[in-house]
Amino acid sequence: GFYNFTLFVFPFCRKSLSRSSVRSRMSLRSPKAYSSLQKGEVVWDPKPLQVKKIFEALKKGLNEYLEAHQAELDYLSGRHKDTKRNSRLVRILLTLITQIRSVERYIRKLEFHISKVEELYEAYCIQCRLRDGAANMKQAFSMSPSTKASRESLVELYKNFQGCTEDMCFIEGALEVHLGEFHLKMKGLVGFARLCPGDQYEVFVRLGRQKWRLKGKIETDDSQTWDEEEKIFIPNLHEKFEIKVTELRGLTTILVGVVTCDSINFFTTKPQAIIVDITELGTIKLQLEVLW
């Protein structure tokens, strides 16, 4: 099922070059929403192309959920019409009415959520265009003869460029609030002849500052036991999953391999089975399941 969305309203206004900060125009917001900003973790280097990719994947995934629930609503509405014709099915009718109202509320939440994501991205694109314009004007002024007026214009353009950069990073943080959760399930290692009974492995999964470390053992019947099987990760706009597998041999560890995995394809309604080549030749693979 889909996660419960945390919804925030951001009343953005279109700005001119005589700009005021996007942040100063936002409504009251939860401090949790921008904890990364408060901790000083944000690098003032926006990534428009990456944000565009995530936005498109996120919107596609949200629309998938919307279509699925709309289909469910259509099915329930059809059953409701059929049940109304039979006066003896009052209990079923009441249950259907409750289900229909629940799905309708959920659809409204999804529609509201999609509109907020679109609003954030529209504001982001505006800041991106303003930033590009300021950068182009800076370059033009820097190539012209230096005068007092041109120097003053350069200072003002630099302020505008920096302000747009900060606002873009701030909107990136706001957009991350709307990305939901990734539920990762450990399905085990696949290694054919490389995996032997008694072998012990450690898998380390990292996404930004989020970490998951788990240990597993190959049993005599070739089954695998792991000390932890599921972990929740909060999606990140810029970070990829980093997966490291080591083999434990007594007091020593042997690195099997390190790989990275993009999360762009995880924003979908269906659980995604992921099989990652840990070694270069693919002799050992890691199998995970991701549910958004």
Structural class: alpha+beta
Radius of gyration: 25 Å
Distance between termini? 8 Å
How are the strands of the largest sheet arranged?
4-3-2-6-7
Protein name: RIPR3 protein
InterPro entries: FAM65_N, RIPOR3
Family: Belongs to the RIPOR family.
Pfam family, one: PL48
Short description:
The protein is an alpha+beta fold.
What this model shows, in words?
- By secondary structure, the protein is an alpha+beta fold.
- 42% of the residues lie in helices and 22% in strands.
- The strands form two sheets. It has a five-stranded antiparallel β-sheet, with no helix packed on it.
Which descriptors apply to this entry?
4 helices, five-stranded antiparallel beta sheet, FAM65_N, Immunoglobulin-like, alpha+beta
Question: Secondary-structure blueprint of this entry?
Answer:
Elements: H1 35-38, H2 48-84, H3 90-143, H4 148-176, E1 182-190, E2 200-207, E3 210-218, E4 224-226, E5 230-233, E6 241-249, E7 252-261, E8 272-277, E9 285-291
Antiparallel strand pairs: 1-5, 1-9, 2-3, 2-6, 3-4, 6-7, 8-9
Helix pairs in contact: 2-3, 3-4
